[in-house]
Amino acid sequence: MSEKQVNQIIGKVFNQLADTLISGEYGQKPRVAVTAMGSEHGEQTIFQAAAKAAKGGIDATVIGSKTIEGVTIAFVENEDQAHKKMEELLDKGEIDACVTMHYPFPIGVSTVGRIVTPGKGKEMFIATTTGTSSTDKVEGMVKNAIYGIITAKACGIKNPTVGILNVDGARQTEIALTKLKEQGYDINFAASQRADGGAVMRGNDLLMGSADVMVMDSLTGNLMIKIFSSYTTGGNYESLGYGYGPGIGEGFDKLILIISRASGAPLVEGAMKFAGELVKGNLKAIAKEEFEKAHKANLTEILKGTKLVKKSSEDEVKAPKKEVVTSQISGIEIMDLEDAVKLLWKNNVYAESGMGCTGPIILVNEANTETAIKVLQDNEFIAKEKTCC
Question: Mind telling me the catalytic residues?
Answer without folding.
Answer: 357
